[in-house]
Amino acid sequence: MIEIGRIVVKTAGREAMRKAVVVDIIDKNYVLITGPPSLSGIKRRRANIGHLESTDKKLDISRKATDEDVVAAAKEAKLDSFLNEKITLDV
Question: By the 8 A CB rule, do 16 and 10 touch?
């Protein structure tokens, strides 16, 4: 389920297999995500929900939280190293 604060994995594009955090829901097809760049290298941008896979982890952040707020929430929840890990596929 895609919701604000949910940690997701991008499955398409140049940032595929990197983790990001949902900071706003734009409409039924798009959300605003951020890495933030200091943790996972993903800049704040619009992303298609079809190109995201949600994880079971969620940060306690408000709607349209700044990158600094996301970093602080990740460190508080001890998920900063989880966000920094890149996903690998086992084929």
Answer: yes
Copy the structure tokens of residue 12. 């398409």
Report which DSSP code applies to 61. Answer: -
**Domain spans in the chain, listed from the N-terminal domain onward:** 6-84
Q: Which residues contact residue 12 at a Cβ distance below 8 angstroms, ignoring those fewer than 6 apart?
A: 48, 51
Q: Kindly list the distances between the CA atom of residue 57 and the CA atoms of 13, 68, 80, in Å, as whole numbers in the listed order.
A: 22, 19, 12
Per-10-residue mean pLDDT of the chain, 91 residues long, equals: 94 92 96 92 94 94 94 92 82 68
Please spell the DSSP secondary structure of 3-20, one letter per residue.
Answer: -TTEEEEE-SSTTTT-EE
The total number of residues shown for the chain amounts to: 91
pLDDT digits (tens, 9 = 90+) for 63-82: 999 999 999 999 999 998 99
Q: Judge: domain 6-84, CATH 3.90.1170.50.
A: no
